[in-house]
Amino acid sequence: MYQFALSKMVMAGAVLAGLHGAAAAADAIRIGSVVSATGAAAYLGDPELKTLQLYIERVNAEGGVLGRKLELIHYDDGSEANKANSFAKRLIESDKVDLIIGGTTTGSSMAMIPLVEKAGIPFISMAAGVPIIEPVKKWVFKVAPTDRMAAEKVFTEMKRLGITKIGLLSETSGFGQSGSKETQAVAPKYGISIVANETYGPKDTDVTAQLTKIRSTAGIQAVFVFGAGQGPAVATKNYKQLAIALPLYQSHGVASEEYIKLSGAASDGVKLPAAALVIAAQLPAADPQKAVVSAYEKTYRERYKADVSTFGGHGYDALMIAVAAIKKAGGTDKAKVRDAIEATRGYIGTAGQFDMSASDHMGLGLSAFRLLDIKNGAWRLVQ
After folding, report:
1. What pLDDT digit, counting tens, does each position of 327-369 carry?
2. Tell me, which fold does domain 148-274 have in CATH?
3. For residue 144, which of 136, 155, 133 has the smallest C-alpha distance?
4. What's the average model confidence in pLDDT over 66-93?
5. CA–CA separation, 216 vs 218, rounded Å?
6. In angstroms, rounded to a whole number, what is the distance separating the alpha carbons of residues 383 and 370?
7. SS3 sequence, the chain?
8. Within 10 A of 287 (CB to CB), how many other CB atoms are there?
9. Residue 9's pLDDT is what?
10. Are strands 29-35 and 99-102 parallel, antiparallel or unpaired?
């Protein structure tokens, strides 16, 4: 009789423990994420995922958010936009996440947007394309400076140097297509004519044919490559092999040490717009981003023994904005969190100062970009 009673007590205890565990798990704030941790955009997505994992762990170690732990539920789309759509659907319908951070690429982000808009769930993209936030979409925000801003930063430098005729080589991915469109749209504003316009596929291993056509165009003074992942490195090496004696500019899609490693010595002299994060040590002490980017760089290096990239910084900014919004909303009510994200003002992140509004779901100005070049395999601040 005693053994039977004891057995019932043990079973009851186990049931209670199970219920308590389930309640604790349900009480977690569920952050969903879709990143390109593998595939052509892996060198963008891998540091994003590592950053989310690192800082969610740190937030939890410090007591969580509003007394609740953060739980990261993430999927790898393999750099394929159609997979991003499927994973977003899973995050919303099966995983029941409270918020989504993701979309390493513009294509993946655009594939997820219809789902998050329909479901009414806050979504913070880490990709650059203007179409992500223009026109403004109620539930969609982003933390990466836009491709339009990148083109304007490059054109500001070209105008200073008296460059008026350029060749454009862009990727056929979502990022490259948006970048090409924005580049062509803003060029006249800076008195620049695009006299040669070629494209390449994100998986192409050689673009000498396109570069040869660009080089042969009369009057051309510089070349601007707009892409992300491995393609720009291929173009850079081909550029060197063809001994093209014209200035080479890249977009912010290559602001990672991985680009320099993939390009090798061919990257020497390349100019590009990038966030302050990659040249943290070169910033003056009075720079408002100095403390933020230096702390992130130190933390990331200590954990992963690897160089930082602006893409990992996008993960940090997205998470910190989300955490601040949840605190401001007093919980995970999706409408309240959405409103709190939109009300983000004066947040200094790795990408710059964010001042969002109902008409601007990014909140970054052109000052978010610094102009860099590469000298002897290292980033150098130009202006």
Report:
1. 999 999 999 999 999 999 999 999 999 999 999 999 999 989 9
2. Rossmann fold (3.40.50)
3. 133
4. 97
5. 6
6. 6
7. CHHHHHHHHHHHHHHHHHHHHHHHHHCCEEEEEEECCCCCCHHHHHHHHHHHHHHHHHHHHCCCECCECEEEEEEECCCCHHHHHHHHHHHHHCCCCCEEEECCCHHHHHHHHHHHHHHCCCEEECCCCHHHCCCCCCCEEECCCCHHHHHHHHHHHHHHHCCCEEEEEEECCHHHHHHHHHHHHHHHHHCCEEEEEEEECCCCCCCHHHHHHHHCCCCCCEEEEECCCCHHHHHHHHHHHCCCCCCEEECHHHCCHHHHHHHHHHHCCCEEEECHHHHHHHCCCCCCCHHHHHHHHHHHHHHHCCCCCHHHHHHHHHHHHHHHHHHHHCCCCHHHHHHHHHCCCCEECCCCEECCECCECCCCCHHHCEEEEEECCEEEECC
8. 15
9. 41
10. parallel
Residue 42 in this model has a pLDDT that exceeds 50: yes
Tell me if 23-144+290-364 shares its fold with 148-274. Answer: yes
Instruction: Classify residue 342 as exposed, middle or buried by CB count within 10 Å of its CB (0-12, 13-18, 19+).
Output: buried
Six-digit token pair at 288? Answer: 């408002």
- Which residue is listed with tokens 């019932």? 8
Topology annotation, domain 23-144+290-364: Rossmann fold (3.40.50)
Q: Where are the domains of the chain?
A: 23-144+290-364, 148-274
Strand partners, 360: 357
User: Position 20: which residue type?
Assistant: H
Interacting residues of 291 by C-beta distance below 8 A, sequence separation 6+:
none
Question: Does the bond joining 135 to the residue before it have cis omega, within 30 degrees of 0?
Answer: yes
Asked whether the beta carbons of 104 and 150 are under 8 A apart, the reply is: no
End-to-end CA distance of the chain: 83
Q: What is the dihedral sign for C-alpha 58, 59, 63, 69? A: negative
